[in-house]
Specification:
CATH topology: Metallo-beta-lactamase, Chain A
Mean pLDDT: 92
Bound molecules: zinc ion
Number of strands: 17
Helix content: 25-40%
Strand content: 15-25%
Low-confidence stretches: none
Structural class: alpha/beta
Number of helices: 8
CATH superfamily: Ribonuclease Z/Hydroxyacylglutathione hydrolase-like
Order of helices and strands: HEEEHEHHEEEEEEEEHEEEHHEHE
CATH architecture: 4-Layer Sandwich
Shape: globular
Length: about 325
């Protein structure tokens, strides 16, 4: 074989090698999308019936992008303390980007006077680094509030996939499940994301007496339309509130890695070049608006300022800013 031909073959092999990961990802993406659609179509659940109700509900963001004071730390991640009558829930574990101990979550908890002794259960919306407490935890199949050991007192931890923590008791949620009187998981809804892969995400539904269902959402990957459709399948009560992440990084991304606006590319459930648009946000707002919710609070951890303003403009006095340290009382 001539040198020139050997060189050409080597180049072709190199080019092929570079193309294989994207080709593999594209195939995985198309197959995963089909699979997610099939799971969604097959997930026909009966009404949950009388799940009970709570009289008092409050949501205190412990980690999110915006903070109510300079003393508290913000990150593009989620951790909320939910107090529903006698049940206190830790919803997600934050990002802990630098994987420190104590983490920003622990430091904020200390400043807000919250202890792990008060937490009755843990709810993990989905297995992404900004919700399970860091990239290292994702790699290890763990969720955790910090890089070092924290005693979670063997609290039950409801998760959509089998991730663990040495001091908690994981229960993998596969179908709609009542977790305590008036409190339910609506079961995971899967979405295939181009880079991040198969992503089942569950949302929490809390029935507030005389008001209706309050939804607490992690990243909103399944889309708000599907999350609300699932709520309408499970409950007769009206939708009272929607609080949490809906993934609308239209004009900017909170998380930028190697100069890439990560959220605009990574969490959308679409091809990487097919970004979330203003029209998508308006469509979601009008879908939500027709349900007439009385409290709407969009997490800034995965939505840009433009989207936050769009929600605020649409819902007016029913819109509540979501900030670390500012309790939302229902
Ligand atoms: Zn996510
Ligand atoms: Zn998120």
């Amino acid at each position: 074989m001539s040198d020139a031909k050997t060189m050409k073959n080597a180049m072709e092999i190199a080019l092929l090698g570079a193309a294989i990961p994207p080709a593999f990802m594209a195939l995985r993406f198309v197959q995963g999308q089909k699979q997610a659609e099939a799971v969604w179509q097959a997930s026909q659940y009966p009404k949950l019936g009388d799940i009970g109700s709570v009289k008092n509900l409050s949501i205190l963001p412990l980690i999110d992008w915006r903070t109510a004071s300079d003393e508290l730390e913000g990150e593009p991640g989620v951790s909320y303390l939910i107090r529903a009558d006698d049940t206190t829930i830790l919803f997600d574990m934050g990002l802990n980007r630098d994987f420190k101990h104590p983490s920003p979550l622990l430091r904020n908890m200390e400043k807000l006077g919250i202890s792990f002794d008060e937490i009755d259960m843990i709810f993990i919306s989905h297995n992404h680094l900004d919700h399970v407490g860091g990239m290292q935890h994702v790699k290890d199949g763990i969720f955790g509030p910090s890089a070092g050991y924290v005693n979670l007192h063997q609290a039950p931890a409801y998760a959509p996939v089998p991730i663990v923590n040495p001091s908690a008791t994981t229960i993998v949620v596969e179908e709609p499940t009542v977790l305590a009187p008036g409190i339910a998981s609506m079961a995971p809804i899967p979405r295939q994301l181009f880079f991040l892969g198969w992503t089942p995400e569950q949302s929490l539904a809390i029935n507030v007496a005389g008001k209706g269902i309050v939804l607490i959402i992690g990243c909103g990957h399944p889309t708000i339309q599907r999350i609300i459709t699932r709520k309408e399948m499970l409950f007769d009560e009206p939708l009272y509130g929607v609080i949490g992440g809906l993934h609308f990084p239209v004009t900017a991304s909170r998380s930028v890695r190697h100069g890439i606006p990560a959220q605009q590319y990574f969490g959308t459930g679409r091809w990487p070049w097919d970004h979330i648009t203003r029209a998508d946000v308006h469509e979601a707002i009008s879908f939500l608006y027709r349900r007439d919710p009385k409290v709407v609070s969009l997490s800034p951890h995965d939505s840009c300022d433009w989207s936050l303003t769009a929600f605020q403009d649409a819902f007016g006095s029913r819109y509540v800013d979501l900030m670390v340290g500012k309790e939302i009382e229902i």
